């Protein structure tokens, strides 16, 4: 069934992402804090604490450091959401990646525009983060194209085998950079969870009130988008079974990321860049050569 | 005279005429007037050419023999003149290498024109196809726009200059440059193309050395030495194809190469392809020849803009895209794609370590050209689609950026990116244009990135692991060095910095506006350009009409590009919210001076610099690796090809013999092409060697030439009379040989 040339499933995917993703993202953020607290032997906040934080931010006084920052943060949110819409509509994965990068650029520009030492440092580090994960993300797209002959996410749902069957090493490499993309320790170098660290709060130091709320909202959308990318590796033409497998795998990976977050100290940016590029180089090359032989 | 020939002649000769006029005009007003009118006429001329000749097929034009001969000699005279000019300059400035190369080039050019090309019949001297129209539009609109920008820029430049005012020469050479570029893109006669190729080399030599400082002179000689190597390679290729293939036309050269490759003699086509590639590498500043383009940065900014965006380096990639059907998975193709992609990666990495804006632009140019070169090397329809669009978007966005940097330099007194901090407040309009230019270079939805996407797809289809791996890392580096620059200019200090852009000349704003409109307009019109111009061209070239990127995705990008452009040009930068001071790790003392009370109760100022990562991506290290890789590849492939050509020398001798025999044979008189002839010749030569005596006695055939003529009569004349199919079988035998 089609409406205006779009399949009904694309439309459902887009609407579900637009409406449900922030709620799931919020709950996952709350769960993250609970689990983290558990691992550290604390009780931790309530599950819905991120939601109450978000509400509180909306009620704060409207203050900003300049007149451009809000615009960049809005563009960040809009492009992250647009990128997710492309992905969950089953659209072109590369298009999704590029729009997501555009969103990331505006987040960085929001940090730079404040011209505050900490936000600036955070923005520079965020740029290095993008440079670190970009090769691996592009390799995911390349691997997907070489394995299935298409960049379209929807085509994975009619594939005989899940993508991870063809791209085992690229999947592992992707998990490595996923930690950078989610800004989890040891790669939380651009923004710290707590303000009393060496970079204060990094790139988000100068955001406040509604602007910071928008950043939180964008992060929730981002989380769901990146978990979607993870799930993409394990779907096949298996109907609802494939869907359940994808969700379970995504949640397991999410838990795994929290575990990593709590067990590693922050790396230096050089270590992040070198390691991420080595992983991309080795995993990408070996996996693509493997693809050429099967 | 046909309208096509008239248009081409106008586009080539009119800029030369303007150049001659400007050489003798001293007055400022008169120069401005002539320049603006000349630029407008050239731009209109290229648009006329586009509206008139945009069509899927290639228009070819034959020129009257007498006129063609006259132009041949004129080209020879120009070449000799250019070589003598370099010779004299080289002696004067004591540059022995340039002198030696000029002499070699002189000898080769004379030998080529008098001994080789003289005997070769050229059927169609000129042509127009969609790709040359695209090039003409870039030269005519972007190139002219840059020259107009030069009016205001050079006025300021000369105000700071103590020596004599040499602007007449400057504008004159700029216009001559455009004429030579038009000649390159419309010439099918390769000797003419070579002449124009050399003119662009010497023009940029004159432009780089314009200021006559020691550095400028040294860099101009670096340019001429490297480009003379390219010129010599180009002449060598022409000597080769003139002697062995007997062709001196671009389309015939491609056709002959393809048919030789199809008949299993690909190896002997490698030598001229390698030489052409080498020539293109020097022009397009590919590693190991990249240093001249960096040296060219000492020239006034309009020169850099012209060399980087619409002329000179584009001539190199133009040639490679033209011969790309012959590349693909051959030794020259492999060389071209690998050198291109290595240049893309290592120059992008080297750009990270550069604080000088013009050097960043230079490295980014070389890097992007590397990607175009790599696409040309792959030579598939998708790759050429990507290459053509990269060329278009690079031309418009890079010229915008150069002009922005030039204007910023005159008003803030520096071309260092660190000094562009807070440009958003000091030059609000310029900073927005610069931001659009920068985004146009590296991020979706702008054209460069979408073309890179097509490049990535075509590399994946070609299943070349090296290309793919170097591409993804190069892309990441590209993101890094553009973003940190963009962040710098968009920073807002909230101090009352004075707006210093009020004194920018109108002519500068006009050109800046034009480039911005082109940068954004090409992105919005991307799907239309693809469908109406590039896809038809690929259809004629490859027999498939492809939009490498699905047209729906292109429209999504076009809409986003429009939105971003409108937002960036339109938003005011003011807010209703309360403006709070930023946090400076202590109690602030003076917000606009960025000072705060530090932990020793003293006063510190907060400063910040961009990251240059010198110890990881140092320029020297990256360039060294690039040089080693590219030199190894070039020497390796030349050694391999020399060896294999030596092994194939018999085949070459055979081709030469066949050509001698073809001349004045019945075949030639009846317009059977040489390739067909050669196949029969190869086949029947053995037969002739074995049955010499019998043939002599029974049929009175005295030589191979006689045999071939007899064969012709049997196959075509008697067959036509009797209608039998006998020779059809022998024909297919011959064909299978």
In percent terms, what proportion of residues of chain A is strand? under 5%
The beta-strand count of chain B equals 6
Low-pLDDT runs of chain B: 723-737
Low-confidence stretches of chain A: none
Quaternary class: heterodimer
Helix fraction of chain B by DSSP (H/I, runs of at least 4): over 70%
Number of helices of chain B: 31
Main sheet: strand order of chain A: 1-2
Care to count the β-strands of chain A?
A: 3
The number of helices of chain A is 10
Q: What structural class results from the helix and strand content of chain B? A: mainly alpha
Distance between the termini of chain A: 36 Å
Describe the overall structure.
The complex is a heterodimer of chains A (294) and B (737). Chain A is mostly helical. Chain A has one domain. In chain A, a hairpin with a 2-residue loop joins strand 1 and strand 2. The two termini of chain A are 36 Å apart. The model of chain A has no long low-confidence stretch (mean pLDDT 91). With 737 residues, chain B is an all-alpha fold. Chain B has 2 domains: 593 residues, no CATH class; 89 residues, no CATH class. Chain B is 75% helix and 2% strand. In chain B, the strands form 2 sheets. Chain B has a 3-stranded antiparallel sheet, with no helix packed on it. In chain B, helix 5 runs parallel beside helix 16. The C terminus of chain B is likely disordered. At the A-B interface, strand 3, helix 3, helix 4, helix 5 and helix 10 of A face helix 19, helix 20, helix 23 and strand 3 of B.
């Amino acid at each position: 069934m089609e409406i205006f040339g779009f399949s009904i499933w694309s439309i459902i995917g887009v609407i579900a992402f637009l409406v449900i993703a922030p709620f799931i993202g919020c709950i996952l953020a709350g769960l993250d804090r609970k689990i983290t607290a558990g691992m550290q032997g604390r009780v931790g906040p309530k599950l819905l604490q991120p939601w109450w934080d978000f509400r509180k931010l909306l009620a704060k006084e409207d203050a900003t450091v300049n007149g451009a920052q809000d615009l960049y943060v809005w563009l960040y949110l809009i492009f992250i959401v647009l990128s997710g819409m492309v992905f969950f509509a089953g659209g072109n994965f590369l298009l999704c990646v590029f729009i997501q990068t555009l969103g990331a650029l505006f987040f960085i520009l929001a940090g730079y525009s404040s011209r505050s030492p900490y936000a600036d440092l955070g923005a520079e580090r965020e740029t290095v983060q993008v440079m670190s994960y970009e090769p691996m993300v592009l390799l995911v797209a390349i691997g997907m194209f070489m394995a299935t002959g298409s960049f379209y996410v929807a085509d994975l749902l009619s594939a005989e085998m899940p993508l991870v069957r063809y791209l085992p090493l690229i999947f592992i490499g992707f998990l490595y950079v996923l930690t950078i993309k989610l800004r989890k320790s040891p790669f939380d170098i651009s923004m710290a969870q707590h303000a009393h660290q060496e970079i204060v709060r990094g790139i988000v130091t100068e955001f406040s009130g509604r602007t910071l709320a928008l950043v939180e909202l964008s992060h929730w959308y981002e989380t769901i988008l990146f978990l979607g990318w993870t799930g993409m590796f394990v779907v096949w033409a298996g109907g609802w079974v494939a869907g359940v497998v994808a969700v379970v795998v995504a949640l397991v990976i999410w838990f795994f990321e929290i575990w990593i977050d709590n067990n590693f100290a922050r790396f230096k940016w050089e270590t992040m860049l070198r390691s991420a590029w080595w992983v991309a180089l080795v995993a990408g090359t070996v996996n693509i050569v493997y693809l050429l032989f099967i | 005279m046909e309208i096509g020939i008239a248009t081409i002649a106008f586009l080539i000769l009119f800029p030369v005429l303007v150049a001659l006029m400007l050489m003798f005009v001293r007055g400022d007003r008169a120069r401005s007037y002539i320049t603006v009118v000349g630029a407008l006429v050239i731009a209109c001329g290229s648009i006329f050419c586009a509206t008139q000749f945009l069509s899927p097929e290639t228009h070819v034009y034959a020129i009257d023999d007498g006129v063609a001969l006259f132009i041949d000699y004129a080209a020879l005279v120009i070449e000799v003149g250019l070589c003598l000019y370099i010779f004299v300059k080289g002696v004067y400035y004591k540059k022995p290498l340039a002198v030696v190369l000029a002499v070699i080039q002189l000898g080769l050019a004379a030998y080529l024109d008098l001994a080789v090309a003289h005997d070769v019949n050229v059927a169609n001297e000129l042509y127009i196809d969609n790709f040359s129209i695209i090039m003409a539009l870039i030269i005519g609109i972007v190139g002219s726009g840059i020259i107009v920008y030069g009016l205001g820029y050079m006025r300021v430049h000369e105000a700071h200059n103590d020596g004599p005012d040499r602007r007449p020469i400057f504008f004159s050479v700029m216009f001559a440059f455009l004429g030579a570029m038009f000649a390159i893109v419309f010439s099918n006669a390769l000797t003419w193309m070579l002449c124009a190729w050399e003119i662009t080399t010497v023009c940029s030599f004159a432009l780089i050395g314009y200021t006559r400082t020691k550095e400028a002179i040294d860099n101009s000689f670096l340019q001429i030495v490297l480009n003379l190597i390219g010129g010599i390679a180009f002449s060598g290729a022409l000597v080769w194809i003139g002697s062995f293939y007997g062709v001196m036309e671009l389309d015939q050269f491609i056709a002959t190469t393809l048919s030789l490759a199809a008949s299993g003699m690909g190896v002997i086509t490698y030598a001229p392809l390698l030489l052409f590639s080498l020539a293109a590498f020097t022009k397009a500043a590919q590693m190991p020849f990249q240093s001249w383009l960096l040296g060219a940065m000492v020239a006034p900014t309009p020169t850099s803009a012209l060399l980087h965006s619409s002329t000179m380096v584009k001539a190199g990639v133009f040639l490679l895209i033209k011969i790309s059907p012959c590349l693909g998975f051959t030794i020259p193709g492999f060389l071209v794609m690998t050198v291109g992609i290595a240049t893309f990666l290592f120059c992008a990495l080297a750009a990270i370590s550069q604080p000088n804006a013009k050097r960043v632009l230079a490295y980014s140019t070389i890097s992007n050209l590397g990607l175009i070169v790599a696409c040309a090397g792959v030579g598939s329809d998708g790759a050429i689609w990507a290459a053509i669009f990269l060329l278009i978007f690079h031309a418009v966005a890079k010229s915008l950026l150069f002009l922005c940097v030039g204007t910023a330099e005159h008003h803030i007194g520096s071309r260092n990116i660190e000094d562009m901090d807070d440009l958003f407040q000091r030059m609000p309009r310029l900073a927005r244009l610069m931001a659009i230019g920068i985004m146009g270079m590296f991020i979706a939805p702008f054209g460069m990135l979408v073309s890179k996407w097509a490049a990535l797809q075509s590399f994946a289809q070609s299943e070349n692991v090296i290309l793919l791996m170097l591409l993804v890392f190069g892309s990441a580096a590209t993101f890094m060095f553009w973003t940190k620059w963009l962040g710098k200019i968009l920073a807002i200090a909230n101090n009352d910095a004075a707006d210093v852009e009020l004194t920018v000349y109108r002519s500068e704003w006009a050109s800046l506006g034009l480039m911005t409109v082109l940068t954004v307009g090409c992105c919005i019109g991307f799907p239309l350009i693809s469908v109406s111009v590039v896809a038809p061209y690929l259809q004629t070239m490859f027999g498939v009409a492809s939009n490498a990127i699905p047209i729906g995705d292109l429209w999504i990008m076009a809409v986003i590009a429009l939105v971003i452009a409108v937002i960036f040009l339109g938003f005011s930068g003011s807010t209703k919210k309360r403006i709070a001071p930023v946090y400076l790790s202590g109690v602030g003392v003076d917000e606009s001076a960025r000072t705060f009370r530090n932990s020793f109760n003293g006063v510190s100022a907060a400063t910040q610099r961009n990251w240059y990562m010198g110890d990881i991506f140092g320029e020297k290290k990256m360039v060294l690796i690039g040089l080693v890789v590219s030199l190894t590849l070039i020497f390796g492939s030349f050694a391999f090809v020399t060896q294999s050509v030596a092994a194939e020398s018999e085949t070459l001798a055979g081709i030469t013999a066949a050509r001698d025999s073809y001349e004045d044979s019945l075949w030639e008189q009846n317009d059977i092409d040489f390739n067909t002839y050669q196949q029969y010749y190869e086949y029947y030569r053995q037969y002739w060697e074995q049955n010499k005596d019998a043939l002599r006695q029974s049929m009175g055939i005295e030589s191979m030439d006689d045999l071939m003529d007899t064969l012709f009569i049997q196959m075509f004349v008697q067959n036509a009379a009797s209608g039998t199919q006998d020779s059809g079988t022998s024909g297919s035998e011959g064909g299978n040989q």
